[in-house]
Amino acid sequence: MSARLLGGFFRRKYCDILILQKIMCRAIRLLMLGIFCTALFLDAISVYIFHDVDKNKIGHWNEAFADLSIEALKLQKALEPPSTHL
Prior knowledge:
Number of helices: 2
Order of helices and strands: HH
Largest sheet: none
Distance between the termini: 30 Å
Structural class: mainly alpha
């Protein structure tokens, strides 16, 4: 890849390996945040608009939303690489 394709990424002072690691960790954290926010948004649509919950949760919308949010957190922790805990 040329530096032109990367938006001049390598023409700047970003060639140090520690800087690249920080950039990648930040990108992974932002990706995980995006996954979590999207999951919360879709959970809210699923529960409050479509009422897509178990039969025993009908009428208990907040409890159903909390359960789906906990599932989203568990999924995020399962997908998150261990290197982003720095």
